[in-house]
Design a protein that fits this description.
The chain has helices spanning about 1-25, 45-55, 60-70, 75, 115-180, 190-220, 245-255, 260-280, 320-390, 395-430; strands spanning about 45, 85-95, 100-110, 235, 285-295, 310-315. By secondary structure, the protein is an alpha+beta fold. It has two domains: about 40-80 and about 115-280 and about 320-430, Outer membrane efflux proteins (OEP) (Up-down Bundle), CATH 1.20.1600.10; about 85-110 and about 285-315. The protein has a four-stranded antiparallel beta sheet, with no helix packed on it. A two-stranded parallel sheet has the order 1-4. Strand 2 and strand 3 (about 100-110) form a beta hairpin. The two termini are about 70 Å apart.
């Protein structure tokens, strides 16, 4: 019975070891199934793309590593300096009453003034907090760039689909013109216009296709993937209105922006450096002990040959007050500079919010205009022009103009939709928080 259990255990262990390479291939750093974001013919979701970026972005990993490194610094600067050990040997022995000094050993420890190590530790902790906010800022920056690249890929994908649809439409109109030309109802010029328009649209289609390759390479670079790695088609995006006003956005930025928190941490660090500079007026101590090896001396001496021990105490003398006052002034000036830097960043942050707010409102106004007015009317105009052309009531130029107008409005609508989402992504990066989701309009 025990043998059968042993056999089962061995087989189970072999199965786990055989499975191990498959498990390793699914880790984020390897080129297994988990590193594929989709085939060319699959749908690539925005949530999936952002999650992959957060897990695999080298930029985020580098920022996190710098933060983790800074977290070790407080322990380094708050520790005492290494003790000093010295050994002496008398080349020519120094004679004493108890005997000659043959050599000795010295041990000393420097002790900074009370509070210096604690102040240094707090400064290092403030620096670690700065790196933490830089990490958060980098994380938001990567998310924003990934979203913007994703939406740009969406726009190009839509532009390809719209242009291809218009190529098919023009080919149908070309057939109509060919039939009418064959029956002598229109001149050859109509047929040539249709062919020229098809060639122009085909050129636009080729350009958009090349742009898609570039957009995919940029998104892959942000995701930490090879430029030619496969990507699926972006999912459909919905129009969402920005319902928050400027004052609400300003308030969110002051509460959540890692950029502002970073400057606040730098101000804290500078103020703590002022305190440490003031402590430089006080001396540091050095405590030590010394052992001396005494050889045999006069036989009648009471302590003949007895080794000697001694304690040592020393301090440095901070006499050059001008140097220390200059250090304090330097630290105070740096603190004032950091406060100005905070004020400047806050002003620029509010401007960036207002600029994004304006761009979002402009794009969203255009979305409504194209979707509810211009595109429906352009589609109706094209239908009327097509029927009129078939009935010999209008010329081919009016038909082409109607087609061009519809194409322009369709592309402009998708561009406005893309601009709205891209500026929303920039706004979230600026304020440092995700905007509340609204119902699609």
């Amino acid at each position: 019975m025990k043998k059968s259990h042993l056999v089962i255990a061995i087989l189970a262990m072999a199965a786990v070891l055989a499975r191990a390479p498959d498990l390793r291939s699914q880790t984020p750093g390897n080129t297994g199934a988990a590193s594929e974001l989709g085939r060319v013919d699959s749908i690539l979701s925005l949530q999936q793309t952002v999650a992959f970026a957060l897990a695999n972005s080298p930029q985020i990993a580098a920022a996190e590593a710098r933060w983790n490194a800074a977290l070790s610094r407080p322990k380094v600067v708050s520790s005492l300096p290494d003790p000093m050990v010295g050994v002496s040997y008398s080349v020519e022995e120094i004679q004493t009453r108890n005997g000659p000094i043959r050599g000795g050993v010295m041990l000393s420890q420097k002790l900074p003034w009370l509070g210096k190590l604690r102040a240094s530790s707090k400064i290092a902790q403030s620096e670690a907090d700065v790196f933490k906010e830089r990490f958060e800022s980098t994380r938001l920056e990567v998310i924003s760039k990934v979203k913007q690249a994703y939406f740009e890929l969406y726009w190009i994908t839509k532009a390809i689909a719209i242009t291809r649809s218009n190529v098919d439409l023009m080919k149908q109109l070309e057939k109509v013109a060919l039939v009418k030309y064959a029956t002598g109802r229109v001149p050859q010029q109509d047929l040539l216009k249709a062919q020229v328009e098809i060639s122009k649209l085909q050129n636009d289609l080729d350009t958009f296709t090349e742009m898609r390759t570039t957009a995919e390479s940029k998104l892959n670079a942000l995701l930490g993937r090879p430029p030619a790695a496969p990507l699926g088609a972006p999912e459909e995006i919905e129009f969402e209105r920005l319902t928050l006003d400027l004052d609400s956005l300003y308030r969110m930025a002051r509460e959540s922006s890692p950029d502002l928190r970073l400057h606040q941490r730098r101000i804290e660090k500078a103020e703590r450096e002022v305190g440490l500079a003031k402590l430089d007026y006080y001396p540091d101590f050095t405590l030590g002990v010394q052992y001396q090896d005494i050889g045999s001396g006069a036989p009648m001496a009471p302590n003949e040959g007895r080794d000697a021990w001694s304690a040592k105490f020393s301090i440095n003398l901070p006499l050059w007050w001008g140097k220390r006052q200059a250090g304090v002034n330097e630290a105070k000036t740096r603190a004032v500079s950091e406060q100005f830097a905070y004020d400047n960043r806050e002003n620029m942050l509010l401007f960036e919010i207002k600029d994004s707010y304006f761009r979002i409102n402009t794009a969203q106004r255009q979305i409504v205009l194209y979707r509810e007015s211009l595109i429906p009317r352009a589609e109706q105009s094209l239908r009327v022009s097509e029927e009129s052309y078939k009935a010999d009531k209008t010329d081919f130029l009016n038909l082409v103009d109607s087609q061009r107008m519809l194409l322009h409005f369709q592309l402009a609508y998708q561009r406005a939709l893309t601009d709205s989402h891209q500026n929303l992504a920039r706004l979230e990066e600026t304020i440092g928080a995700k905007l509340p989701e609204n119902e699609p309009k």
